[in-house]
């Protein structure tokens, strides 16, 4: 934790000495209005959490953790979210495996190798625009590129789920977060002082040796923090999976003798946010508390991931300070 | 002999041995490949959209794209209804996101001491991290019964007002963070000059810093609009399934993203109906072009204002 420092900037001091101690009602009113808009977000957040937890309590009170460990079921009384948790974790594994190395490599190229020419500017603009493409459009891309072309075309997945497997879903989410991954990593690399690179090259290191031994070790806490936040975003994402193949029914089962390879290639899957969506659109009243309970689990998992990001950052920052 | 030659040609000496240089070239090529993938992704998105969107346009009569509501299974593809509904959601969302996002940005940039910042800024970051499907549930279960029905008791259970407010809440952090960056980029000398002329703090914040950062603020609002137009899960849950055009914010209806999500959710049933399924790609293309345009415009504005300071 940083030590609290007096936060007076030179501008503050100039202002205070000119304004003096006179009370200005309009000043107070404007300051209060601005603070009110900011505090509204706090109120919204607290309301959202309190309302959801209150609605979820009956489920956890009556069923405890069996709600978490049970499988999907069309009857609200026995429906659980285990498949969604496993599906989301599997999707996240694919996102990490694909988007992390690609994103870091692309950012290293753009920040450390590329000269400032038209082509580099084009790639940078392209990445910024990709980051602004709505997530549902990535779902259409996933349906076209990964389900239809890769799974059905290249691997010949027919029948059953027809290539709508967790690999296609994971690749879709990886492509979705790749631009964000590149942007956050680029920012982390840009924050590394240039003197470090110059010193390294001055003693004879090549560019790659400089990156490997000087730049990346310094940038890694920021890169990892950005990565974890990006992964959290993928974890809560559901719109692309509507199209890219997650199961949208209230109930499905996985063959009991399915091997690991079967699970990721020929067996259906779903994700936790998709289950939230499915529960939320059921008309029966008992699904309301079930939805809230699934949201609580989703938010707890996201919070854990974000806390992990903070821990990782703190730990590495101490090492390289 | 060789030694003498090497001593003379010192630049070659400095480039190091062949293996080291080769490794350097390979590493650079791999990294370049990773960066180039982003272009392939863009091309793939365009290909994914254009092929089936074109197939859709050629398989229907263009008159089907106008009037009569959006009912893809009955061959009625009223783009106007989707546009109007999307505009309504976006309009309501920006009525929430613009004042609250900009107000938060002004407070964080011009008023907040660093201690207050450290406590309040993460709140916006947490809000930004809430999955949109959660806000959709919040719109259905909290905003509609407690806020919308409080004002309009006859509101439908799925309505534009609740969905728009929820989308607006999702957009607040984006508007706040981009416009705060813009205001922070305003040089301190402008503030000092303003105080030096005797202006009060509110005057400096609203009449000096805000106008100086206006291009960045406009860019933030455009980004917010693009975000609101593309938001899917809130709309899919809380904006309803009505395909007939309505201007009534207490009723619900399909937006562009809502129509795509609805087709995806029901795709098993429409698998036989080719045109209905392909309409999904057409709406996706329209959505892509629209948000891309907004993002490009916003990027242009940001770059221009960066040059000024």
Q: What's the story with the biggest beta sheet of chain A?
A: none
Helix content of chain A: over 70%
Mean pLDDT of chain A: 88
Low-confidence region ranges of chain A: 1-5
CATH fold-level assignment of the largest domain in chain B:
MetI-like fold
Helix proportion of residues of chain B, in percent?
Answer: over 70%
Q: Could you say which overall geometry of chain A the principal axes of the C-alpha atoms support?
A: globular
Write the element-wise H/E pattern of chain B from the N-terminal end onward: HHHEEHHHHHHHHHHH
Give the C-level CATH assignment of chain A: Mainly Alpha
CATH architecture of the largest domain in chain B: Orthogonal Bundle
CATH superfamily of chain A: MetI-like
Report mean pLDDT of chain B, rounded to a whole number.
88
Major β-sheet of chain B, in short? 2 strands, antiparallel
What strand line-up does the widest sheet of chain B have?
1-2
Q: Could you explain how this protein is built, in words?
A:
The complex is a heterodimer of chains A (321) and B (309). Chain A has helices spanning 10-19, 25-63, 66-69, 82-113, 118-131, 135-154, 166-190, 194-202, 207-236, 239-244, 260-265, 272-280, 286-320. Chain A is mainly α and 321 residues long. Residues 1-5 of chain A have low confidence and may be disordered. Chain B contains 14 helices and two strands. In chain B, helix 7 runs antiparallel to helix 10 (214-230), helix 10 runs antiparallel to helix 14 (274-308) and helix 12 runs antiparallel to helix 14. The mean pLDDT of chain B is 88. Chain B has a two-stranded antiparallel ribbon with strand order 1-2. Chain B has two domains: 14-59; 63-308, MetI-like (MetI-like fold, Orthogonal Bundle). At the A-B interface, helix 1, helix 2, helix 4, helix 5 and helix 6 of A face helix 3, helix 4, helix 5, helix 6 and helix 7 of B.
């Amino acid at each position: 934790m940083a030590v609290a420092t007096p936060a007076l900037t030179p501008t503050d001091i100039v202002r205070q000495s000119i304004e003096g101690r006179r009370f200005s009602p309009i000043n107070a009113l404007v300051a209060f209005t601005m603070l009110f808009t900011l505090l509204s977000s706090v109120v919204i957040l607290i309301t959202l959490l309190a309302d959801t937890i209150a609605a979820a309590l009956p489920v956890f009170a009556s069923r405890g953790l069996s709600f978490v460990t049970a499988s999907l079921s069309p009857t609200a009384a026995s429906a659980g979210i285990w498949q969604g948790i496993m599906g989301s974790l599997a999707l996240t594994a694919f996102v990490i495996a694909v988007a992390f190395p690609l994103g870091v490599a692309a950012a290293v190229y753009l920040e450390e190798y590329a000269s400032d020419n038209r082509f580099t500017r084009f790639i940078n603009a392209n990445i910024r625009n990709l980051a602004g493409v709505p997530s549902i459009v990535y779902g259409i891309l996933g349906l076209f590129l990964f389900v239809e072309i890769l799974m059905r075309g290249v691997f010949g997945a027919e029948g059953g789920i027809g290539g709508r497997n967790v690999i296609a879903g994971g690749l879709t989410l990886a492509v979705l977060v790749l631009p964000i991954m590149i942007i956050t990593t680029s920012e982390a690399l840009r924050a590394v002082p240039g003197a470090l690179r110059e010193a390294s090259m001055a003693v004879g290191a090549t560019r790659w040796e400089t990156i490997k031994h000087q730049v990346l070790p310094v940038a890694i806490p920021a890169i990892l923090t950005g990565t974890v936040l990006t992964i959290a975003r993928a974890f809560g994402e559901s719109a692309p999976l509507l199209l890219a193949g997650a199961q949208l029914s209230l109930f499905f089962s996985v063959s009991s003798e399915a091997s690991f390879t079967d699970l990721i290639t020929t067996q259906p899957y779903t994700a936790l946010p998709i289950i939230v969506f499915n529960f939320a659109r059921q008309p029966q009243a008992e699904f309301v508390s079930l939805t809230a309970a699934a949201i609580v689990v989703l938010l707890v998992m996201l919070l854990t991931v974000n806390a992990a990001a903070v821990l990782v950052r703190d730990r590495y920052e101490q090492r390289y300070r | 002999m060789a030694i003498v030659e090497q001593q003379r040609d010192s630049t070659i000496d400095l480039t190091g041995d062949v293996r080291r240089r080769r490794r350097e070239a390979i590493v650079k090529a791999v990294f370049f490949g990773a960066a180039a993938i982003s272009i392939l992704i863009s091309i793939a998105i365009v290909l994914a959209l254009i092929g089936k969107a074109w197939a859709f346009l050629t398989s229907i009569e263009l008159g089907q794209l106008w009037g009569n509501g959006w009912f893809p299974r009955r061959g009625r593809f009223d783009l106007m209804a989707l546009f109007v509904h999307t505009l309504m959601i976006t309009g309501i969302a920006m009525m929430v996101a613009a004042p609250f996002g900009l107000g938060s940005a002004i407070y964080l940039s011009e008023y907040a001491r660093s201690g207050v910042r450290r406590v309040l800024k993460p709140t916006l970051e947490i809000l930004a991290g809430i999955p949109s499907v959660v806000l959709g549930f919040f719109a259905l279960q909290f905003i509609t019964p407690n806020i919308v029905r409080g004002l309009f008791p006859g509101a439908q259970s799925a309505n534009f007002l609740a969905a728009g407010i929820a989308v607006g809440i999702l957009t607040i952090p984006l508007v706040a963070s981009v416009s705060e960056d813009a205001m922070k980029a305003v040089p301190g000398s402008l503030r000092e000059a303003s105080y030096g002329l005797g202006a009060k703090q509110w005057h400096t914040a609203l009449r000096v810093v805000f106008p100086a950062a206006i291009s960045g603020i406009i860019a933030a609002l455009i980004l917010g609009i693009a975000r609101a137009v593309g938001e899917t899960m809130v709309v899919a849950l809380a904006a309803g399934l009505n395909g007939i055009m309505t201007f009534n914010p207490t009723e619900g209806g399909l937006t562009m993203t809502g129509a795509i999500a609805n087709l995806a959710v029901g795709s098993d049933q429409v698998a036989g109906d080719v045109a209905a399924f392909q309409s999904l790609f057409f709406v996706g293309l329209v959505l892509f072009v629209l948000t891309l345009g907004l993002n490009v415009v916003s990027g242009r504005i940001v770059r221009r204002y960066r040059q000024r300071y």
